[in-house]
Amino acid sequence: MESKKIVVGNMKMNLLAGDISEYLRKINSSNLGEQVVICPSNIYVPYFLKQSYKVGVQNLFFRDSGAYTGEISAAQVASLGVKYAIVGHSERRGYFRESDQDINKKVVVTLKYGLEVILCIGETAEEKNLLKTARVLKRQILNALRNLEETDFDHIVIAYEPVWAIGTNVTPTNKDIMDTISYIKGIVSEYFHYEDIPVIYGGSVSEKNIKELNSIPNVSGFLVGGASTDAKKFLKIVEVAVKK
Ligand code: PGA
């Protein structure tokens, strides 16, 4: 179980070209290994690929190709040698108004081109306060995973990211994360007959709390935002989560 954990670094829209060179220099000596995926801004993707890191994109568009200025397709991403795509991040859902339907189309096209999907789901603070967490997660899962083949599920990791925990230095208790992961696995098993889908946790994962979070028995890894942009912090997280 332990050895299958993955750590995904979501750098979001951070770091300048010079920072990336510096970052690569810092992580270069420390062979990150097979279980770490780095998702930099798209323009930096080739730098990481060149050094043989496992790379993911933070988003892609659901059309195969065409006149969609500023977008990138799953086909293009796959043609470069990228292996993962984050789909449905709460910042995409929120700031860019991505609907459950858009996210489903992105999941489908990502799988079509042979990429692994990291599907983000999570409730907002308001939904949590209204006790709607279970309902929201269920809706997000059922909609995102429509129209898939049975074998597609082997290529999906779900990232549970409570929106209120992202970038806030606040995390749910280990017990709450564990219960929510069980719930998510249960939904996928009940509605799609797929057992034990891997679920990773994201939201204020840091070099300070990784030891504690890593003790959650059913967590399959972590999606790290802010802390992934600092090589030293990210290496510490990787060390604890996957390099035991
Ligand atoms: P954070 O972001 O680690 O900065 O909270 C996580 C994410 O948005 O994936």
Name the hetero compounds present.
2-phosphoglycolic acid
Compute the average pLDDT. 96
Q: Structural class, from helix and strand content?
A: alpha/beta
Strand content: 5-15%
Question: What pattern of helices and strands is seen along the backbone?
Answer: EHEHEHEHHEHHEHEHEH
- Order of strands, main sheet, comes to 1-2-3-4-5-6-7-8
Q: Helical amount among residues, as a percent range?
A: 25-40%
Task: Let me know the number of strands.
Answer: 8
Distance between the termini: 12 Å
Principal-axis shape equals globular
Written overview of the protein:
The chain has 244 residues and is an alpha/beta fold. Helix content is 39%, strand content 15%. It contains ten helices and eight strands. It has helices spanning 17-28, 45-50, 74-80, 90-95, 100-112, 125-129, 133-144, 174-192, 210-213, 231-242; strands spanning 6-10, 36-39, 54-57, 84-87, 116-121, 156-160, 199-202, 221-224. An eight-stranded parallel β-barrel has the order 1-2-3-4-5-6-7-8, surrounded by four helices. Helix 2 (45-50) links the parallel strand 2 and strand 3. The longest helix has 19 residues, at 174-192. The chain is globular. The N and C termini lie close together (12 Å). The mean pLDDT is 96. The structure holds 2-phosphoglycolic acid (PGA). 2-phosphoglycolic acid binds at residues 10, 161, 166-167, 202-205, 223-227. 2-phosphoglycolic acid is lined by residues 10, 161, 166-167, 202-205, 223-227.
